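Consider the tokenized backbone below.
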């Protein structure tokens, strides 16, 4: 395992980066790393790389560890589809490579299959080192890459206008309407010691 190179990074160095960035050694980030590496090998070299993750779990961290694409710089888009798949593409030509897993073959690899199956019930996860060995040995056999073309850019490159919310007075992107999402019933917090009802600055 120690001589493996993932996107130009030695395996042991990748594990260290994984622990520092993701918080622990993750089979999902490892499998994601193989997927990123595989997709980029098939994609023509481009300075305009974007990557789409079709899950919010593990895969986005593999993308951010191994490519210049991050959530913050806008070159990584994340779709909450619950699908362990990604697409690496050229944001100018919209041509790319989509990498996913071959679920038909997954039962051939018991540790990977046991780790990947989600039944909703509590289960004992296999030790990372055992699972990592099977991922590194057999994971490439589970990868499916296909050339794709995006219908349209997934990120609007135009600058979005902002405005002040009529209720809380904070600045936000104006396409949400006259009130920001938090003041329109989509808030996820309440200030301690205050009422739920926001102040309307127009009153």
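A designed sequence for it:
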């Amino acid at each position: 395992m120690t001589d493996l190179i993932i996107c130009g990074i030695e395996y042991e160095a990748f594990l260290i980066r994984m622990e520092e960035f993701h918080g622990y050694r993750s089979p999902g980030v490892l499998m994601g790393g193989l997927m990123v590496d595989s997709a980029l090998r098939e994609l023509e070299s481009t300075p305009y790389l974007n990557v789409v993750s079709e899950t919010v779990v593990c895969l986005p961290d593999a993308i951010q560890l191994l490519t210049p694409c991050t959530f913050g710089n806008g070159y990584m888009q994340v779709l909450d589809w619950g699908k362990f798949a990604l697409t690496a593409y050229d944001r100018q030509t919209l041509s790319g490579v989509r990498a996913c897993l071959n679920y038909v073959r997954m039962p051939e690899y018991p540790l990977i299959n046991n780790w990947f199956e989600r039944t909703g019930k509590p289960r004992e996860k296999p030790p990372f080192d055992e699972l990592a060995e099977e991922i590194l040995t057999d994971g490439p056999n589970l990868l499916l890459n296909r050339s794709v073309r995006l219908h349209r850019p997934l990120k609007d490159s135009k600058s979005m206008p902002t405005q002040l919310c009529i209720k809380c007075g904070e600045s936000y992107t104006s396409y949400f309407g006259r009130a920001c999402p938090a003041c329109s019933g989509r808030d996820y917090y309440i200030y301690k010691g205050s009422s739920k009802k926001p102040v309307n600055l127009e009153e």
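The CA atoms of residues 44 and 96 lie 8 Å apart.
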